[in-house]
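Sharing a chain and its predicted structure for anyone who wants a worked example. Both blocks are below, sequence first, tokens second.
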Amino acid sequence: MVLFVLALALATLPLVSPLDQAGDKFLLSAHMLQHVLIGDAAPALALVVLRGPLLFFVLPAPILRVLGHRRRLRGTLAFLLRPPVSLALWALVIGAWHVPAAYTGFSPLSDLVAWSPCSRLPSRSAASC
């Protein structure tokens, strides 16, 4: 239970603590720390915690019924939830995320973003546009 609360804290505190103000206004490193805590540390810890009995309290009953009756799906999920496999998939997703063509070249909004007035004004934030 302590690890579950810690996972929730790692996902929440970067958004409600002084780290959020520092990341928004002053330090790029603080902003990147927020990304690491929210996108990497909290989900990894939640995966470790939710592998056990807590998983049955998180998933809705209809999903549990489907998982319980489908042997192949259960086997696939059991394989994907193994720590080495999960770590390899996580590393693959992080690596793919850092290939610029993966998220800019194929976006239907990429041309729209390139021509937006906000993209030409470095002093304005996206929220003020």
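Comments welcome. DSSP finds nine helices and no strands in the chain.
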